[in-house]
Structure formats: C-alpha cells, structure tokens
Amino acid sequence: MVDIEEIKKLSVEERILMVEEIWDSIAEDTIYKSTNPIQEEEKMEMLRRLQEFKSGNKKTYTWEEVKMYAKEP
After folding, report:
1. Cystine design at 10: which of 14, 21, 34, 51 (Cβ 3.0–4.6 Å)?
2. Which residues, 6+ apart, have CB-to-CB distance to 38 below 8 Å?
C-alpha cells in the first residue's frame, strides 16, 4: 500500500496524473475483467437489433420525441 504522506509530497499535477491512472485502471478492470460478462445469447440479441436498425426497418425516435414521450402522463 502506498503511504498517503508520500503522495502528499507530490505536486498537484503529479497527484492528478496518479488519480487519472488509478481511475483508468479501475475502468479497465471493470470493462475487461467483469464478473458478469455479456452472455452469448445477449450478444446475439444486440447484434440482431443492430442489424434491424441498419436495415432501416426499425422505427427510431429523436431525442426530442423521447423527452416529449417521457413527460406524458
């Protein structure tokens, strides 16, 4: 474990860089080493939906339409 007093000796810039590196490592572990990876069935469903979207046969909504729909009672 790194001693906090040693970290405090670093410049603000160095500490910010350190935090960025730590954050990136957490994101990397979370994304690439997830304990709940996407199941094959879920991946196939996402690919199916993507193909459906790309074919133009799927109705899509603008962000404005989505917001307006969300406000309706």
Report:
1. 14
2. 46
Q: What would the pLDDT profile of 8-38 be if each residue is shown by its tens digit? A: 999 999 999 999 999 988 888 776 666 667 7
Query: Could you tell me the pLDDT band of residue 1, with boundaries at 50, 70 and 90?
Result: confident
Residue 57 located in a structural domain? yes
The total number of structural domains that make up the chain: 1
CA dihedral 19, 21, 23, 27 (to 10 degrees): 180
- Compute the distance between CA of residue 24 and CA of residue 27 in angstroms, rounded to an integer: 5
Asked if the structure places residue 4 within a domain, the reply is no
Sign for the CA dihedral angle at 65, 68, 70, 73 comes to negative
